[in-house]
Amino acid sequence: MIGHHMQANQAQRHRRVQCAFQTTPARQGHFLSVIFPGSQKTMSSLSGKVQTVLGAVDPGQLGRTMTHEHLTMSFECCYFPPAPGDKAVAEAPIEMRNLFWLKQNPYGSHENLLLCQETDAVKEELLFYRRSGGGTIVENTTAGISRDVTTLKRLAKETGVHIVAGAGFYVDVTHSDETRKMTVEKLTDIIVSEVLHGTDGTSVKCGVIGEIGTSWPITDSEKKVLKATAHAQAQLGCPVIIHPGRNPVAPAAVVQILQEAGGDISKTVMSHLDRTIFDEGELLEFAKMGSYLEYDLFGMELLNYPYKLEVDMPSDSQRVKTLAFLVAEGYEDRIVIAHDIHTKNRLTKYGGHGYSHILNNIVPKMLTRGINQNQVDKILIENPKHWLTFK
Ligand SMILES: CCC(=O)NCCS(=O)(=O)O
């Protein structure tokens, strides 16, 4: 089945109908910035600020922050064909009778992968997120999965939620031939330009690099993007967020590449730990490397994780248990959390948990499982704030 998936992905590489790939030509020179003599570091006017799609803000304005969400994107790159007997339900319009099937098979329905068609529903969700006490969302959509910063800007204006957009590139299967041929220097210029000047032909600037996509094993093209990410981060002093491959050693392998290329691991989030590292000893070993530890699939509970059948996707209760373990081990300053909504069925419009599930359901559970209010505030407010603030 996994081989089937990889073949499907290779075919997708040539189709990519919905995943229009666009990059902004890199511009040389950084307005409002100074390059210190003898150093690579660009000291920009962003120092001490967080860059949202509506401009730079003081970090204290962010409030409760989900560090890994998507508001508009396409996940067609990772379509996973359903079992032959499920073709009819997979191709049916989304309705009440197939919601449970979608929850178990989110990647087997083309329609379910097009979150980009749900901007009105997402806007309603963001208004509810604010009413639930939310302040900021980091929108992790990068090149390759239909990033749309114009829509993000509109959503931020119309809802009052601070939205931080992501620079850079998703996993190898979405890299264009042009991207694959680029040097590390060219890739660095593009990422830096997306932060300092604007993204995908707009003046909307990204406030974080990532999610930078990596597979397992990490491909050559992904290694170049990782090096470019580290170089851009060294210049800008900005936050970085990584999508690791599905192997317990993948997060450490990524950190090693970033470190060797001059990246700042203390300002880097490692995403998707919920489906990647299961052994507590291995988790503590990875935690020692110093990145933020992100549990970002809250709300996603399914029996068979199609991209790696050996993985038992944890339940939300198990996720909370892992957070309590990390807190007890002294990592309360390094944890961040989110839902990583990337399919339609997870929106409340389709009976899903929505962007406010953590605030309304997970936080109360955390408080009953040995995590106190001060620690919850660190996880939801302080840690994201420190991560997102440019050095
Ligand atoms: C684009 C969203 C994304 O990459 N989510 C992670 C999905 S999974 O790798 O955990 O299946």
UniProtKB/TrEMBL annotation:
It comes from the Eukaryota. InterPro entries: Metal_Hydrolase, Phosphotriesterase. Keywords: Hydrolase, Metal-binding. A divalent metal cation 1 binds at residues 68, 70, 211, 340. This is N-acetyltaurine hydrolase. Its cofactor is a divalent metal cation. The keyword Translocase does not apply. Binds 2 divalent metal cations per subunit. Belongs to the metallo-dependent hydrolases superfamily. Phosphotriesterase family. PANTHER family: PHOSPHOTRIESTERASE-RELATED, PHOSPHOTRIESTERASE-RELATED PROTEIN. Coiled coil: none annotated. It comes from Aldrovandia affinis. It catalyses: N-acetyl-L-methionine + H2O = L-methionine + acetate; N-acetyltaurine + H2O = taurine + acetate; N-propanoyltaurine + H2O = propanoate + taurine; N-acetyl-L-valine + H2O = L-valine + acetate. A divalent metal cation 2 binds at residues 211, 243, 272.
